[in-house]
Amino acid sequence: MRIRSGLILPLFAATALAQQPAAPPKYEVLAIRYATVPGFAVSDLIKGADPARKIDIAMYVWLVRGGGRNVLVDSGFYRPEFFKSWKIADFVRPDQAVARAGVKADEITDVIITHMHWDHAGSVDLFPKAQVWIQRDEYAYYTGAAWQKGGKHGGVELADLTTMLRANTEGRLHLVDGDGEILPGISVYTGGRHTWASQYAVVDALPGRVVLASDNLYLYENLDKHLPIAQTFDEASNLQAQDRMRKLASDPRLIIPGHDPAVLTRFPKVSEGIVRIE
Ligand SMILES: [Zn+2]
Question: From ligand 1's centre to the CA of 176, what distance in Å?
């Protein structure tokens, strides 16, 4: 009897485990700074801020690693024209910045584009093997109505739209309809209205659910003082999105804003310009 149960019970246990759906991986999340824009007006980030205030904003991509995937949230920029029109410091080309975390450009499996601005969607072509994810409405607006009378396309570049179109012709572009899980343990949410249909990512990560807000939340101060971002199609919607981020994150400190240099001091350093969200 003892021998039988000793043999049979582990078999039952193994069968029960096999019947459960595979648990999504718990991801490691890294914030990777690839540049700094010094002396940026805080009033261009936080609605109603004192115009005299300036901040050296950090330019980030976020690397999500686990379950055989290397997912990049946003791609950064690198084309030379931006260095003429912007003062840029600490620049490391985004693919080389990601390499500092030990991941080569062609090992990036997915790039989630939160929105079409040049500093987020400007390096998709550096990651040639990646599946690319963007909201369908964002793609449709900036390839169409944004350039018609009454449309808005500030910060959106033809070259980046062309890159997205090329990815589409190569079968690598995924058009997402609103909120939902796009990869195991990685979901996107809309409503921030930084651009027409900007999205943010929520990751089942090792420390809990991490919200990678990108520009739907520029700075911690937006969240702490409940102030909308300065550049949005809809301030009320932006605040609602911030409230929702608080519900989605396991802990408010796991809500990561898009350009706050304090991210680099709040979390442990992995390498130069890289911290682990934990
Ligand atoms: Zn933006």
Answer: 19
Nearest to 130 by CA among 80, 156, 96, 166: 166
N- to C-terminal Cα distance for the chain? 48
> What is the CA(215)–ligand 1 centre distance, in A?
5
Q: Which residues are in the CB-under-5-Å shell of ion ligand 1? A: 117, 215
What is the number of structural domains in the chain?
Answer: 1
Question: How far, in Å, is the centroid of ligand 1 from the Cα of 115?
Answer: 7
Q: Ligand 1: distance of its center to the CA of 59 in Å?
A: 11
Q: Give the global pTM.
A: 0.92
In the prediction, which pLDDT does 87 show?
93
What CATH number should be reported for the domain holding residue 157?
3.60.15.10
Give me ligand 1 centre to Cα 14, in Å.
49
Task: Please identify which residue in the block is written with the tokens 């179109």.
Answer: 165
The reply to whether 52 falls in a domain is: yes
6 lies in a domain?
A: no
Question: What would the pLDDT profile of 202-254 be if each residue is shown by its tens digit?
Answer: 999 999 999 999 999 999 999 999 999 999 999 999 999 999 999 999 999 99
